[in-house]
């Protein structure tokens, strides 16, 4: 039995984790001095409602190595191999914590830690792919090799509704944020080379979605993987975006998921996201 472990940046709820038989190591979210749980979709919604009226951004802290060590000790007792799939090392020190824990473990030969180079939808996608491989009887090394192949072909991009949270995080000047808000500018972002970067600035959500479609159309999409859609807080908007895209491209396999606080802190409510795998 291979034990699969990921972190809360994959936005997999505790109920889902139990059903999938995986473990979630949480990143710590501290909001105005209070630690917030991010275990259910209701927790995600509560987070964004608080974020709307916040005067400062929450603080996100990576898991400690001890959180992984406890899992490794339990796996050793049960004779299980362990696969850890972490949030992108370019966004957090979570990968470093897991690697340090592996080095400290007496069971290190049976543990593999993989930097997914991803977050939210695409981190989830790799976790679910690993589960599929495990359940089909693949061994640990084969799973790691296939995950490392797919992660290089995976794409997640999104359109942000407001510049407010990028401004609060010091990622853009206040003057630019003021002009952008006045003109209803929507940044289009992509997770690339382990880090978030801006693809474009578009005026209005419709123009932002068109830019996402341009990214979707750049190369052939691998039909053996589903296309994932994400949203922050506004599920109806997410459903409409997925429906529009499914009809536009006649997609056979599409799934919709909420985005939680780890990345949501920076993009804010009413963000839309699109994730897919490119063909080789």
Layout of helices and strands:
Elements: E1 2-7, H1 14-20, E2 23-25, E3 28-31, E4 34-36, H2 41-52, E5 59-61, H3 65-78, E6 81-86, H4 94-104, E7 111-115, H5 120-135, H6 140-151, E8 154-159, H7 164-168, H8 174-182, E9 185-192, E10 195-203, H9 205-217, E11 227-231, H10 235-249, E12 254-258, H11 261-267, E13 272-277
Parallel strand pairs: 1-2, 1-6, 6-7, 11-12
Antiparallel strand pairs: 3-4, 3-5, 8-9, 8-13, 9-10, 11-13
Helix pairs in contact: 3-4, 5-6
Give helix % range: 40-55%
The pLDDT mean sits at 91
Number of strands: 13
Percent of residues in beta strands: 15-25%
Low-pLDDT residue intervals, each spanning 5 or more residues = 171-180
- Strand arrangement within the widest β-sheet reads 10-9-8-13-11-12
For the record, give the distance between the C-alpha atoms at the N and C termini, rounded to a whole number. Answer: 30 Å
Individual helix count:
11
Q: Main beta sheet: strand number and arrangement?
A: 6 strands, mixed
Q: Which class do the helix and strand fractions yield?
A: alpha/beta
Radius of gyration: 19 Å
The secondary-structure element order is EHEEEHEHEHEHHEHHEEHEHEHE
Task: Describe the 3D structure.
- The protein has 280 residues and is α/β, with parallel strands linked by helices.
- The protein has 11 helices and 13 strands.
- A 6-stranded mixed sheet has the order 10-9-8-13-11-12, sandwiched between helices. Strands 2-1-6-7 form a 4-stranded parallel sheet, sandwiched between helices.
- β9 and β10 (195-203) form a beta hairpin.
- Residues 171-180 have low confidence and may be disordered.
């Amino acid at each position: 039995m291979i034990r699969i472990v990921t972190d809360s940046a994959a936005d997999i709820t505790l109920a889902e984790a139990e059903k999938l038989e995986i473990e979630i190591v949480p990143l710590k979210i501290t909001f105005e001095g209070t630690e917030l749980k991010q275990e259910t979709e209701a927790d995600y919604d509560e987070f964004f409602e608080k974020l709307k009226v916040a005067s400062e951004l929450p603080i996100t802290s990576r898991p400690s190595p001890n959180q992984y060590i406890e899992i490794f000790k339990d796996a050793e007792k049960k004779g299980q191999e362990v696969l850890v799939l972490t949030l992108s090392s370019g966004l957090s020190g979570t990968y470093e914590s897991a690697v340090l824990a592996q080095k400290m473990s007496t069971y290190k030969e049976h543990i593999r830690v993989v930097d997914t180079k991803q977050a939210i939808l695409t981190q989830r996608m790799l976790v679910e792919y690993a589960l599929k491989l495990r359940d089909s009887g693949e061994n640990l090394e084969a799973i790691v090799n296939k995950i490392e192949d797919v992660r290089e072909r995976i794409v997640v991009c999104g359109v942000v509704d407001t510049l407010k949270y990028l401004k609060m995080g010091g990622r853009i000047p206040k003057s630019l944020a003021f002009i952008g808000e006045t003109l209803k500018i929507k940044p289009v972002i992509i997770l690339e080379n382990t880090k978030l970067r801006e693809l474009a600035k578009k005026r209005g959500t419709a123009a932002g979605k068109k830019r996402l479609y341009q990214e979707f159309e750049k190369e052939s999409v691998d039909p053996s993987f589903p296309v994932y859609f994400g949203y922050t807080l506004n599920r109806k908007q997410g459903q409409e975006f997925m429906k529009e895209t499914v009809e536009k491209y006649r997609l056979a396999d599409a799934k919709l998921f909420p985005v939680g606080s780890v990345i949501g802190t920076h993009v804010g409510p009413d963000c839309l996201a699109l994730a897919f795998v490119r063909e080789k």
